[in-house]
Amino acid sequence: MLSGISRLAASVQTELSLVRELIRKQTASNQIPLKEMNRDWFSAKGKQLRSLLVLWCSCQRNNKISAQAVRTAALMELVHHATLVHDDIIDHAEIRRGKASMAHNWGATASVLYGDFLFTSALKIGEGLRKRKILGILTDAASRLCEGEILQNHHAFNPNLTPRKYLHIIGLKTASFFSACCEAGAVLSGSGKNNREQLRQFGWNFGFAYQIMNDCQDVIRDHSGKNHFYDLKEGKITLPFLFLAEAKDSRKRFIQSLFKAERSGKRLVSLLNKSPAVARSMKMAHQYLDKAQKTAQSLGHLKYQKELLGLVDVLKQDCLIHESADGSA
Question: Does residue 106 belong to any structural domain of this protein?
Answer without folding.
Answer: yes
